[in-house]
């Protein structure tokens, strides 16, 4: 949800959304991308550590 409690829907028609609102959505989505990338990095490190201890799964 955005700050004003409006869900961002992927593929949503953007015609009626102001430039300021679009910029806000971009900022929110960029923050979410960074959060997801951070989690992916964490999980990659965890998997690597597990592989070092237990060996890689086939």
Reported for the largest beta sheet, the result is:
none
Distance between the termini: 39 Å
What is the tally of beta strands? 0
Q: What is the percentage of strand-forming residues? A: under 5%
In one word, what is the shape? Answer: rod-shaped
Order of helices and strands: H
Give the proportion of residues in helices.
Answer: 55-70%
Q: Low-confidence runs (pLDDT<50, min 5 residues)?
A: none
Overall average residue pLDDT? 91
- CA-atom Rg in angstroms: 18 Å
Question: How would you classify the helix and strand content by structural class?
Answer: mainly alpha
Number of helices: 1
Describe this structure in words.
This protein is mostly helical and 58 residues long. It has a domain at 17-52. 62% of the residues lie in helices and 0% in strands. It has 1 helix and no strands. The longest helix is centred in the middle third of the chain and has 36 residues, at 19-54.
Features:
58 residues, mainly alpha, 1 helix
Summarize, please.
The protein is mostly helical. It has one helix and no strands.
List the helices and strands and how they pair.
Elements: H1 19-54
């Amino acid at each position: 949800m955005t700050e004003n409690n409006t869900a961002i829907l992927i593929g949503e028609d953007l015609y009626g959304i102001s430039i300021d609102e679009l910029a806000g959505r971009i900022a929110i989505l960029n923050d979410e991308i960074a959060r997801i990338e951070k989690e992916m990095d964490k999980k990659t490190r965890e998997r690597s550590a597990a592989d070092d201890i237990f060996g890689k799964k086939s």
